[in-house]
Specification:
elongated; about 160 residues
């Protein structure tokens, strides 16, 4: 009797069938790219404006950092790091999660993916032990991080 290959039919089943090592690597690289960009949001204006003017406008640069994940993940499901690595944040229906879910993901990110507090180690440990390859922020928000090409295959009818 031949083995039957079951094609995942939902975002949740697709997440369960994704390769954990691949997803961990893609998420880690994407996060690193985002951290570099966010560091530029803080360091670039200081260099360009001079420290005194930078201190006067610091609220602008901190606001950009706060809005980075909320708007990009909430509206498009992708930050620059996710775009480059080919992954996307979606809800259970496969759509970008919206601002509220992005807020929940970002709040959890403060402790589980914080570069100053053990890096992304807590998120990595949770993701490695999650059947659906999700970190705490994804579980709180009901979101998934998927490879875009896998999500596209899910949207196509089976032949």
């Amino acid at each position: 009797m031949a083995d039957v290959i079951v094609q995942p039919t939902t975002v949740d089943s697709l997440a369960r069938h994704s390769r954990v090592g691949v997803m961990l690597a893609l998420r880690w690289v994407g996060t690193g790219i985002d951290w570099i960009l966010l560091a530029c949001f803080l360091l670039g204006p200081d260099w360009l404006l001079g420290n005194e003017r930078y201190q006067q406008t610091l609220w602008i640069w901190l606001s950009l950092i706060a809005l980075y994940y909320l708007l990009l993940e909430g509206i498009w499901g992708r930050t620059l790091g996710k775009l480059i690595t080919g992954i996307i944040v979606v809800d259970a229906a496969g759509h970008p999660p919206g601002i509220w879910k992005a807020i929940l993901r970002t709040l959890a990110r403060l402790f589980e993916v914080n570069p100053f507090v053990i890096g992304g180690l807590p998120a990595g440990i949770v993701m490695l032990n999650s059947k659906t390859r999700r970190r705490v922020g994804d579980m709180w928000a009901g979101t998934y991080v998927m490879r875009v090409k896998d999500l596209r295959a899910l949207a196509q009818p089976a032949t």
